[in-house]
Design a protein that fits this description.
binds iron/sulfur cluster; two-stranded antiparallel sheet; nine-stranded mixed sheet; metal ion binding; TIM Barrel; iron-sulfur; 11 helices; alpha/beta
């Protein structure tokens, strides 16, 4: 997959305690429509297979629907939307968004219950809205990839979160390691769980997805963070996104993430996964250290290549 990825807004209608964009602290948007339009025009007709939109919360931009129109007029084949799905709880709005070409909704679902999700988002009602939003777009024939970020407040219910995602008809279930920047860095000790603590819950969540035959992806974890589940790590070699982030353009988003947000240490040199593993988020390594991470010296026989 060769795609474009656009950060549409800094602001959000939720205030997640681990927001990497730091939206809860953004007073106003810095993202200019003319910069978005220029990026879309510059890359039109160059075989990009999809435009991935994200924020903040993209749907709260006043010109969000106009941007979808512009993407379609420029001939991009499809649109992916990363969203908290709160506005999609209104069926008429979900119909409009699907009608304007969004085929894949990547929906944040961080709790199996309203108490957990609303406690993380600091937005009462956000759980019910997300669940209804997923139901609506599935009913309209769109695909859904759920994304659940593992934090201190939800890791013990991760298997139940994955159960819920599958019950709602998610086509792909994504589990993400907490990226310790933005609001997550401000709240580091309140939101960041230890790998030793989350490991059994991530493993159980993976096992439940496998048992039901639902596609599962692990994102942002060092390969040794969840041993035995390496085959579920996303292989970014098959997915190249060129990203517009405010006024910066990153030719290879995931390569940038590996180079600037994650680190390895000397032990990684002797690890069989060192070529494909992105390492550990640098703030985690600095503040908690490397004691939980052990190089893998032999590739497990039942572990084929990661999935795209
Ligand atoms: S030891 Fe290093 S390269 Fe190996 S899986 Fe862990 S973090 Fe990745």
């Amino acid at each position: 997959m060769k795609g474009l990825s656009i950060h549409l807004t800094d602001v959000c209608n939720s205030k997640c305690t681990f927001c990497i964009v730091d939206s809860p602290y953004m007073k106003q948007d810095t993202v200019m429509r003319r910069r978005i339009s220029r990026f879309l025009h510059e890359h039109a007709g160059q075989d990009y297979e999809a435009v991935n939109l994200h924020g903040g919360e993209a749907t709260i931009r006043k010109d969000f629907l106009e941007i979808l129109d512009e993407i379609r007029e420029l001939g991009y084949p499809t649109v992916f939307l990363q969203t908290n799905a709160r506005k999609l709880a209104r069926m008429a709005y979900a119909e409009t968004v699907v009608g304007k070409g969004v085929s894949l909704f990547i929906v944040s679902l961080h709790g199996a219950t309203a108490a957990t999700q609303d406690g993380i988002s600091l937005a009462p009602g956000s759980f019910d809205q997300a669940v209804q939003g997923i139901r609506n777009v599935k009913q309209l024939g769109a695909s859904v990839r759920t994304n659940s970020v593992v934090c201190k407040d939800n890791y013990t219910e991760l298997p139940e979160i994955v159960d819920l995602c599958m019950d709602l008809g998610a086509d792909v279930v994504n589990i993400s390691a907490l990226h310790t920047s933005g609001t997550a860095l401000r709240n580091f000790w309140d939101v960041t769980p230890r790998y030793d603590d989350i490991r059994p819950y991530v493993a159980e969540a993976c096992d439940r997805a496998v048992a039901r035959g639902v596609a599962l992806r692990l994102e942002g974890f060092p390969y040794c963070g969840v041993p035995g589940y390496e085959r579920f790590q996303i292989d970014w070699e098959d997915n190249k996104f060129k990203m517009l982030y405010r006024s910066f353009v990153m030719d290879d988003y995931e390569g940038h993430m590996d180079d600037f947000t994650r680190v390895k240490d000397a032990r990684c040199g002797g690890c069989v996964f060192t070529d494909v593993c992105g390492g550990v988020y640098k703030e985690y390594a600095e503040m908690i250290g490397w004691d939980e991470f052990h190089p893998v010296t032999q590739r497990p026989a039942d572990n084929p290549a990661p999935v795209s």
